[in-house]
């Protein structure tokens, strides 16, 4: 199982949209779980599902928080239990949509310390995103979202990550097309795991 954590410092930069597009693309390659770790239940509200768990073909969705915008004292134990149970299933990929400014010291985020972190930002917040990424054990991916079409990621910044992608302002349904280099890398990692 390859776990990918989608992280960022700011609301509204496309973490949930990118998580969903990434999970949809990965589900074409294997059984994929998309975890909504946001207390606002942003993914759940975006796709309009009922309950805490749902599947559409090879793509399944897991909501961790019970109700949007209400974090209760028992949520941490409930979340740990839900994740441990869900991870016992056989998944090829797990994509985790995290809340803004999630840090590895947070017990909910720390459960997935073995995941590949992908940092999502916009062109105006790259520097602060780089500072934020220093809090994590590794730096796998950088996605600079909402760019102009001709935007190029600085080579020095790209060198800090194993893979970097820019996504221009585009229709939500087209986001997955810009993630194809990332999908190819993850698919290669999966093949290496099973060899």
TrEMBL record:
<dbReference type="InterPro" id="IPR027417">
    <property type="entry name" value="P-loop_NTPase"/>
</dbReference>
<dbReference type="Pfam" id="PF01656">
    <property type="entry name" value="CbiA"/>
</dbReference>
<feature type="domain" description="CobQ/CobB/MinD/ParA nucleotide binding">
    <location>
        <begin position="4"/>
        <end position="112"/>
    </location>
</feature>
<protein>
    <recommendedName>
        <fullName>CobQ/CobB/MinD/ParA nucleotide binding domain-containing protein</fullName>
    </recommendedName>
</protein>
<dbReference type="InterPro" id="IPR002586">
    <property type="entry name" value="CobQ/CobB/MinD/ParA_Nub-bd_dom"/>
</dbReference>
